[in-house]
Write a structure and sequence with these properties.
alpha+beta; four-stranded mixed β-sheet; 14 helices; 26% strand; binds ligand EPZ
Length: 427
């Protein structure tokens, strides 16, 4: 497959647009559930965590390498993974790997909780504005960790952490995950107020409970964890990727096709489906399959504001902006989660889209058609949105810098070809 982590990944995709996408594809395991669940294995000692439905993505393979660098052994074949943690781990994370992916910060809580120390270079990853770790560090220090920032790295050390009451200034997904994982081994009870409620948090809590953790309230704004002396080997499952599913739904709608996604839980996509319905999409749900097509009245402009779950997810903001660029009328897209996640607008304009920006709000005037062009992806979801634009545009589009897209979309070429897209890849 073109996006196996260990092989050279194509840099460009060439799309001959204007074809209706129709057919059925399976949804991958959720990248943003698998990454924290993999980090949770570090809470074990002389034990192992077995996982199923793990997506084969570049970021997953980066996390495998990170865990191996710490001393764990990781077997990853197909979509099954086994992470075995020995008696001793080293606790200094390698800079090159951490700089590649912000989710590397998810090893911080488990390393401090289990091993008493962590040295983490400040992470890299998508450029979505400033993405500090202050909520993570404030929570861990409330639990008794000594935190030091020096030479561009975070050093955190502690004896056994103590349970604490932590109120997050913002329902940060990563901070909720780091503090929840650390709390599973702390002495006493930890309460996280204003916690993130994403489905990926619940998946992580489910796996931690299988490992013996005592967690209640995940999926609500108040999570209570009673610390244990140790956790034990377990087998867990990764939930479907709602963001991947939404991406292909929008590709189907913008091309006037009829796309079915298999293996997705509709309840975790409510805000996405509601907004797409408002814009003119029609859905049919049968069991764990969701089919979508555009209604006979076509697409019309709407207002969207990105919010923490259960609101409209920021990870589908570029994709719905692509859809709205050809809707009838004006749309407003307000990005409230990240302070600069609208950089893709300049690339969208190369297709002929009409978009103006005021602070973190995009005002889109729908156009009748988009014209193929050459564009560059700046991050994972912006890259996916450019591909959606190319699929709808007349003529040929080349999307460059695909390395961003390979971080989150498994078997992208196969899935697009299954739906009838006319594409090829170039190095
Ligand atoms: C997770 O990132 C996801 N990544 C992101 O998906 C997603 O966009 C984001 O949650 C929001 O849903 C993974 O799960 C691996 P946050 P995370 O902490 O945890 C600010 C994708 O495309 N903040 O909820 O980093 C932060 O700057 C990726 O798959 C602080 O100020 O997001 C942002 O403005 C992109 N201080 C806001 O909070 C902190 O200590 C939300 O960030 C932490 C966050």
């Amino acid at each position: 497959m073109e996006n196996k982590g260990e092989n050279k990944l194509p840099e460009k995709i060439i799309i001959r647009g204007g074809k209706k996408l129709s057919g059925t594809i399976n949804v991958q395991g959720a990248k943003n559930a698998a990454l924290p669940v993999m980090a949770a294995a570090i809470l074990l000692k002389n034990a192992s965590l077995t996982l199923s439905n793990v997506p084969d993505l570049y970021d997953i393979r980066t996390m495998c390498d990170l865990l191996r660098n710490l001393g764990a052994s990781v077997e990853f074949e197909g979509h099954s993974m086994r992470i075995s943690v020995p008696e001793k781990l080293n606790t200094e994370t390698p800079t090159d790997l951490v700089r590649k992916m912000r989710a590397s910060s998810l090893v911080l809580g488990p390393l401090v909780a289990r091993w008493g120390h962590a040295l983490l270079p400040l992470p890299g990853g998508c450029v979505l504005g400033s993405r500090p770790l202050d909520f993570h560090l404030k929570g861990l220090s409330k639990m008794g960790a000594d935190i030091e920032l020096k030479n561009g790295a975070v050093s955190a050390s502690s004896g056994r952490l103590n349970g604490a009451s932590v109120t997050l200034d913002y329902p940060s997904v990563g901070a909720t995950e780091n503090i929840m994982m650390a709390a599973t081994l702390a002495a006493g009870t930890t309460c996280i107020e204003n916690a993130a409620k994403e489905p990926e948090i619940v998946n992580l809590a489910d796996v931690l409970r299988l490992m013996g953790a005592d967690i209640k309230g995940d999926g609500t704004e108040r999570i209570v964890i009673i610390g244990r002396e140790e956790l034990s080997s377990a087998s867990g499952y990764i939930i479907p990727d709602r963001i991947e599913a939404a991406t292909y739904m929008m590709a189907g709608v913008i091309t006037g096709g009829d796309v079915t996604l298999k293996g997705i839980e509709e309840k975790c996509m409510e805000a996405i489906l509601n907004k797409m319905r408002d814009a003119g999409a029609e859905f049919a749900v049968t069991g764990d399959s969701v089919s979508v097509r555009v209604s006979s009245n076509g697409l019309k402009g709407i207002s969207v504001k990105t919010l923490p779950f259960p609101g409209f997810p920021t990870d589908t903001q570029p994709q719905i902006m692509a859809l709205l660029s050809v809707a009838d009328g004006t749309s407003i897209v307000n990005e409230s989660v990240f302070d600069s996640r609208l950089l893709h607008i300049n690339e969208f304009k190369k297709f002929g889209a009409r978009i103006e920006m005021q602070d973190n709000v995009a005002i889109i005037t729908g156009v009748k058609k988009l014209n193929g062009t050459v564009v560059h992806s700046s991050n994972l979801r912006a890259g996916a949105a450019l591909i959606i634009m190319g699929l709808a545009a007349e003529g040929e589009t080349t999307v460059c810098d695909l390395q961003h897209v390979w971080r989150g979309y498994e078997s992208l070429g196969e899935k697009l070809r299954t739906l009838g897209a006319d594409i090829e890849f170039e190095d």
